[in-house]
Amino acid sequence: MESHKNELKQLIINVIRKLGKATYEELLKELINKGVDIDDIELRKVIASLIKEGVIVKLPNPKKMKFEYSLSSRSNPEY
């Protein structure tokens, strides 16, 4: 289970790295397009874990009226 969570973390980081920043919906869409079988709750838990670890940050985007996630300046390059 823990390796699955770590794999999801890496996939999320890769998507954000590719897009620069992403909304929850954009992350979910990209993961599904990659064939990842994930539900809302699981994705939200992994995102919360990455925020708590300081790997990603959650910032408001007033134009989209949504939050976006981006890599933090403290994110670990080995992720």
Question: What can you tell me about this protein's structure?
Answer:
By secondary structure, the chain is of the alpha+beta class. It has helices at 2-19, 24-33, 40-52, and strands spanning 22-23, 56-61, 66-71. Strands 1-3-2 form a 3-stranded antiparallel β-sheet. It is globular.
Elements, N to C (H/E) = HEHHEE
Overall spatial form: globular
Number of strands: 3
Q: Report the portion of residues in β strands.
A: 15-25%
**Uncertain segments:** none
Helix content: 40-55%
Mean pLDDT: 91
Strand order of the largest sheet: 1-3-2
Which structural class matches the secondary elements? alpha+beta
Query: Over the alpha carbons, how many angstroms does the gyration radius reach?
Result: 12 Å
Q: How many angstroms separate the termini?
A: 18 Å
Largest sheet: 3 strands, antiparallel
If helices are DSSP runs of H or I spanning 4 or more residues, what is the number of helices?
Answer: 3
Describe the SSE topology.
Elements: H1 2-19, E1 22-23, H2 24-33, H3 40-52, E2 56-61, E3 66-71
Antiparallel strand pairs: 1-3, 2-3
Helix pairs in contact: 1-3
State the main characteristics:
single chain; 79 residues; alpha+beta; 3-stranded antiparallel beta sheet; 3 strands; 52% helix; 18% strand; globular
